Structures are given as C-alpha cells and as structure tokens.
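Write out this protein's structure.
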Amino acid sequence: MTFPATAVEAPLSMRSATTFLAAACVVLGVIPGLVVPTLVELAPGGASLAAQTRLRVPGTGSLPALALAIALIALVALLVRARGKRSAASAPVWACGQRVEPALDWTSAGFTKPLRLVLEVVLRPERIVAVRSAGGVVQEVEYRATVPHLFDTVVYRPVVRASLAGAAVARRLQSGSLRGYVIYLLALVLGLLVLARTGALS
C-alpha cells in the first residue's frame, strides 16, 4: 500500500506522453481542417468536406475556432498579469490541490464502497453501528462493516460441520474393543442374510 506521504510526481516520460496527447487535442480543436477532410474522404460514399472546417451554429453564421483560441490565450495572459506575484497555497497536483492530511486519507473501503452498494444483495454486508451519548449529546459513534465470504459461510462451513459430525459418530463406533468389532461383523452378516432371504439382494 502506498501512503500519500510517500507519493511522488510521475516521471518525465509519463508526463511527456500525456502532454503530447493534450497538445494534439488542442491543435485539432483549433485547426480541425488539417485532419478532418482526410478522415471524411475515408468514409464510405466518397463524402467531401471543405478544407477550412469551422463550427457552424444555425442563425449565428460561422464561428472560427482559431479566433476563439487566440481570444482565450489573451484572456489567460491578462489574468496571469493581473494576479501578479500572488500564489495559492502549495499542494501536490495528484491531490487535486488539496492539502494532504491523515484524516482525509482514502482507504480500500472507500474505493470499494460503490461496488459493495451495487452488489449488496449478493454480498450481504454486515453493519454494526454503536452510538455512545452522555447527557443527551452524542459523544462517540462507532461503525463497523464486514463482508462475509459467501463460499465459506454457504459451502465450506456446512461441509466442515457435517464432516466433523460424521467423524464423531465414526469415533464412537471405533471403540478399540475386539468384542465390539465381532458384534459389528455378526450384525452385518445377519443383515445380509435377512436381505438375501427376503429377495432384496436378488
């Protein structure tokens, strides 16, 4: 298990790959005419598309993506200059800008909670909530949740109990007494004779 305190930034090789993909998305969004006409020609039917692909909204005319990109870049530059030297509190990027505190650590139960809620009918989790109050004010709340192993409770444990019960009966029969074993043999022979006499063995 990796704890937040030991987490580090992704290596440059991983960041460069995602940066390249993000840059490609930006370029295709600003200048879609570089790729979209070629992709349209590959479609069945021999369709064609103008080289200058633009976003056309009915009633508004043509909305050029390149002009919008330039305006957004100018707006971002203006906001950065207006901010000056002020900066937000430092926080790791992988924590979404939130300070890492032990009380906010995610456990495996937090990640599996949606799955346990969806499969609640199958998993049948057991929950125990204990509330301790004093003077009408809640002082402490203890919550415990466990997911029983269905194979152990439904299949394995009943088989084990039946096997142990059969072993206990067999242990009583195996008393170690020679007289007891002779009686068992006589009873078996008599039983076979009775079955043969009645025709059950024919």
